[in-house]
Amino acid sequence: MSNAVDHTVSPAVAEEELLRAQVYGLLARLLSRPPDAAFLTALGEMVGEGGEFGEALDRLAEAALTSDPAAVEEEFTTLFIGVGGSERTPYGSFYLTGFLNEKPLAELRGDMARLGIARADGVSEPEDHIAALFEMMAGLIGGDFAPEDGGTVGLDGQRIFYDRHIGSWAGRFFADLEASPSARFYRAVGAVGRSFLAVEARAFDLAA
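Request: output the structure for the sequence above.
Response:
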């Protein structure tokens, strides 16, 4: 799943908000398709700034430096695609109801229409794939969508979207990813996602 929604981050976004959008974008990229050699090299240059999230970034950088692109591609296929079933099913509907294409997806589509989020052409995956949701969050932070009411989506709107479509299940997905039998490189991705969402949840609580 690649570029599930159309957005570009506005240059006017504050630096700390831009960093949030970049992390969402990074995780969306890693969960939509396996990284190639150049991307692994770039990931290997990351340096965390302390704390659980910073330490998770450092582990991801180390994993990137010691991973073979072909092995990571095989791992991605086993984890998320699989012949006869994948190890993980990264969809909101599945985590919230046990089935795909259920009520959470319909609710997401309603919010997408209200927020002016357009599904990209040529994408067949349901919109509640975690990579698509993270792309949407990046766009909401960047102010890249045009809500039907003509306004902008501030922090309150981001929190509502996060609570409805991400916070209720994505942390469990990342914890499951860390524990996946086939996860090597993606165990580090799971740790980054889980720790980042913990930071996001605390920040939303403090801003409430």
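The first helix runs from residue 15 to 32.
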